[in-house]
Amino acid sequence: MSRRVATLGWLVPEAVVELHPAGAARAGVADGGRVRLRSRRGAVTAVARVTGGIAPGTVFMAFHFAEAAANLLTHAALDPVAKIPEYKACAVAVEPAEALSAACEEPRCCSRSR
After folding, report:
1. How far apart are the C-alpha atoms of 39 and 113, rounded to whole Å?
2. How far apart are the first and last CA of the chain?
3. What is the pLDDT of residue 29?
4. Contact call for residues 94 and 27 (beta carbons, < 8 A)
5. What is the rounded average pLDDT of the residues 9-35?
6. 14 CB-near residues (< 8 Å, 6+ apart)
7. Is the separation of the CB atoms in 37 and 61 below 8 Å?
8. Domain residue spans in the chain?
9. Per-residue confidence (pLDDT) for residue 87, from 0 to 100
């Protein structure tokens, strides 16, 4: 998705993360609520979209949203042969965004880990 296309911005006005219902329940996250994804490399917040359309134990987030840049979570290590960065997958912790620390100055895109 491009932020330059008005119709796409209207359809998806802010970053969303898709969660399987079991994972959302385990994390205490409701559909439409704010969720924080955290990895060893950073953290981002987005709107939760709870769906059975993805496998249990996985989350999906598009990388197109500057306010919640998914690549802040991933590892930039290169494949030794193709020299392609590992921006496709990483382990994340999922928590309600309400659990954010009051010390975070920018709750929409916090690059600090706890």
Report:
1. 7
2. 30
3. 93
4. yes
5. 90
6. 46, 47, 65, 67, 68
7. yes
8. 6-99
9. 72
